[in-house]
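Review form for a predicted model. The reviewer records the input and the model, then writes brief findings.
Reviewer: anonymous (R2)
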Amino acid sequence: MLKPLPRVTIHPRPVEPEQPAPLPHFVELPGPRAPRVLDFDSECRPDAYLGGDITTRSLTGIAAQFIGEPDMWCECIVAGGSPHFDQLVAMLEGFRELYDAADMVTGHNIVRHDLPIISGALVYCGRPPLEPKLASDTLLHGPKSGLSFSRSQENFGDLLGIASDKYHMNNARWKRANTLDAEQVALTRERVTSDVRMHIELREAMVGRGLLRAPRMWRP
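Model under review:
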């Protein structure tokens, strides 16, 4: 007769604590950045007749500055330097570089004036037009006057108590500036840069008082 096998006590194997999976390698990304808003203005002179008294417009200067950033960019056409066409292309492409880096552009009457003129000048020079961009226009998107007050940038600034002002250009100064003489171009430069400095303050005041409607997408 077979003897029964001795009883064996089976002890459970200790469970090893689970090791956390190694973390994947990652690069820490910066937090969300604030949108870059480019404030700009351009100046022109009459060029060629289209018909009747209507003339085309030739750009003479552009100034631009990102709001909240210290540096202002400005280029003006000067007679007697490099060929006019080369200067124009360099100025336009310099502006395009800033424009492409912006999340939104702003200015006074830029939707109907500055943006179409700059984009059209690029096409005239054999370059692609500006890309569509969100635009905040303090004339087009500002309050309606109902013929109660002028909607010029200078008048808006005075109404809202803006300290800065546009450099005043009368007819005699415009005539001198539009010769593109090297000394007289200083008038154009002063005008276009003062416009941007003032507009940065103007837009801030309009936003603070709820006088500026939402920006809209501009397309060439």
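Findings: The chain is about 30% helix and 20% strand.
Further findings: The radius of gyration is 31 Å.
Recommendation: see findings above.
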